[in-house]
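Team,

Forwarding the record for the chain on the shared tracking sheet. I've put the sequence and predicted structure together so nobody has to dig through attachments.
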Amino acid sequence: MERGAILSMRRALLLLVLLFGACLASAGSQSVVLVVRADSSVVDLDPVTVRKLFLGVPVLVNGSPLHAIRNRSDARLDEIFLQEIVAMTQSAYDRQILIGVNRQGWVRPQEVETNSRALDKVNADPNTVTFMWERDVAHDPKIRVIRVLWND
């Protein structure tokens, strides 16, 4: 093989290694976080309280009721919600919500289909709590992360 061909192969190999490294870096860990408005009085919620909140059970902080927003902006986030936050299948969750609404008078958590809508709801009310990918709120000064709910 001639020298020029060897250099071209080395460059191609180096380029592949760099591209592979960039792919690994961008596919790094992901986290789902519980968020509130930056000036909210909500400091932290334990996992049991978070579960109750998203099942529609009334949760008070400093005497004020919290409002849960279920973020359904992507299928993976929805899957994590069901597995890690409420620990139920979709049908079991729907049954629990229906029982709570009909028998206890609880309020069904609102659902939104986009991150921007979830952020609008959080920004409008300091007692609103939702969950989203950490990367979607990492640099938003109007939002405060109060708990990491899931890591990959």
